[in-house]
């Protein structure tokens, strides 16, 4: 499409150059005719001095050029009439030559003068006739070329109108894309509000569970019974079972929250794609408008239509900037949500650690009121070693899981930081051209 506009613009410039060349040729012919009239005036021919002075000092124009050609033709006719009169006078002089010998010398001199004037008049008539023929041929050729250029200019104007209609269709399509992006943004905002509410509920639930765990610890510390009874209590105590069940439930909710976060990231990626699509279309439309403005400078564009098109593009640029700003705000909210998720994950890990430590600690607790069995007054070395190894294994497993999770989060943050940097660079390269203060969008 841009190549066709460039061809139309080049064709219009070529027509303008040809018209300028034709005008230069006519101007040269004007100068030749003016110089000839000045020379005729200097030779004191029968002509009106004031008329010659007016025609020689008259500025060039198409009407003046046509008028001068008509005057030259009229002068040619006058010279032919004078030539015929001179011929009759010569014949009369020849008839009167035999009447008086005293008048022969004067008549001969006058006759010679008349012959010279006749010869000069004939030469001038012949030269004027040739110039008139050349001028008529050039006028016909110029009129044909002007008519051809006018037809080509009309064709170029019609093509420009069709292209303008295509540009309007593209603007409508781009506005539709912007509306879709707005709908997606509103949906994402609603999802963010729901996730924030779920986060608040989850955080309150964690606080409640932490309080219940502390109370359970206090109750267990004051409990009595043998080691086997306490071991059975660990596995059968309703509060611990409830804590374990709630821990599993919270893990499931956290996993669901992660999946929701993934969906939110996919929505953000989709919105980014819409931004890129809108940006590429805005660039293409801006280039087409610049090309149309150049065609308008050559006389093939309508000023009012161009201003309306530029106004629509400016409004679209404003909507695009607003959408970009809202996307940045959503990105900040997403980062805040990720921070809340990380905090909840840390609290969840701490709760699981406390629950595991409590289970392990209860395995080795002896009842103060029970009767010690043989060899039960002290924990055996193997039991202590196994318990310590179990604790160590649990700590290493949790530490490794936390380490992998932190590495994954850090890698994700680096990738998101790079994406934000690229987005800012891209927005920084587009917004100045789409702003209302840009020379490319300022109405002409």
Describe the structure.
The chain is mostly helical. It folds into two domains: 2-157; 167-368 and 378-434, no CATH class. It is built from eight helices and no strands. It has helices at residues 2-42, 49-57, 62-96, 104-221, 227-236, 238-297, 303-363, 381-434. α6 (238-297) packs antiparallel against α7 (303-363). 8% of the residues are buried. Residues 184-269, 278-364 form the DUF7801 domain.
What Rg, in angstroms, do the CA atoms define? 52 Å
Assign an overall shape.
Answer: rod-shaped
Q: How far apart are the first and last residues' alpha carbons, in Å? A: 23 Å
Briefly note the structural class of the backbone. mainly alpha
Content of β-strand: under 5%
Organism: Aureobasidium melanogenum (Aureobasidium pullulans var. melanogenum)
InterPro entries: DUF7801 (IPR056703)
Pfam family, one: DUF7801
Protein name: DUF7801 domain-containing protein
């Amino acid at each position: 499409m841009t190549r066709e506009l460039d061809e139309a613009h080049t064709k219009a410039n070529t027509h303008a150059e040809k018209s300028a060349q034709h005008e230069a040729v006519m101007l040269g012919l004007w100068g030749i005719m003016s110089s000839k009239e000045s020379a005729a005036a200097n030779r004191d021919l029968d002509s009106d001095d004031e008329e010659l002075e007016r025609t020689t000092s008259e500025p060039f124009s198409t009407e003046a050029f046509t008028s001068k050609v008509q005057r030259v033709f009229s002068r040619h006719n006058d010279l032919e009439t004078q030539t015929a009169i001179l011929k009759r006078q010569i014949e009369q002089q020849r008839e009167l030559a035999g009447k008086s010998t005293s008048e022969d010398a004067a008549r001969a001199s006058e006759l010679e003068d008349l012959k010279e004037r006749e010869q000069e008049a004939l030469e001038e008539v012949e030269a004027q006739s040739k110039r008139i023929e050349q001028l008529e041929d050039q006028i016909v050729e110029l009129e044909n070329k002007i008519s051809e250029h006018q037809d080509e200019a009309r064709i170029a104007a019609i093509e420009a109108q069709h292209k303008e209609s295509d540009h309007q269709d593209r603007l409508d399509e781009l506005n539709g894309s912007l509306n879709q992006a707005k709908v997606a943004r509103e949906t994402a905002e609603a999802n963010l509000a729901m996730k924030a509410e779920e986060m608040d509920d989850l955080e309150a639930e964690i606080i409640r569970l932490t309080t219940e765990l502390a109370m359970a610890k206090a109750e267990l510390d004051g409990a009595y019974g043998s080691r086997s009874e306490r071991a059975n209590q660990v596995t059968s105590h309703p509060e611990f079972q409830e804590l374990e069940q709630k821990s599993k439930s919270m893990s499931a909710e956290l996993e669901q929250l992660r999946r929701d976060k993934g969906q939110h990231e996919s929505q953000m990626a989709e919105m980014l794609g819409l931004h890129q699509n809108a940006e590429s279309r805005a660039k293409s439309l801006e280039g087409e408008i610049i090309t149309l403005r150049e065609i308008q400078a050559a006389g093939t564009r309508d000023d009012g239509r161009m201003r309306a098109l530029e106004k629509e593009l400016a409004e679209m640029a404003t909507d695009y900037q607003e959408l970009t700003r809202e996307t940045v705000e959503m990105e900040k909210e997403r980062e805040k949500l990720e921070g809340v998720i990380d905090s909840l994950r840390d609290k969840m890990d701490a709760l699981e650690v406390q629950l595991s430590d409590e289970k392990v600690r209860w395995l080795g607790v002896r009842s103060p009121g029970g009767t010690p069995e043989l060899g039960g007054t002290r924990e055996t070395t193997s039991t202590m070693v196994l318990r310590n190894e179990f604790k160590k294994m649990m700590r290493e497993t949790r530490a490794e899981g936390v380490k992998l999770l932190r590495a994954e989060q850090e890698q994700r943050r680096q990738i998101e930081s790079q994406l934000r940097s690229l987005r800012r660079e891209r927005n920084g390269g587009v917004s100045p051209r789409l702003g209302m203060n840009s020379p490319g969008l300022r109405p002409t």
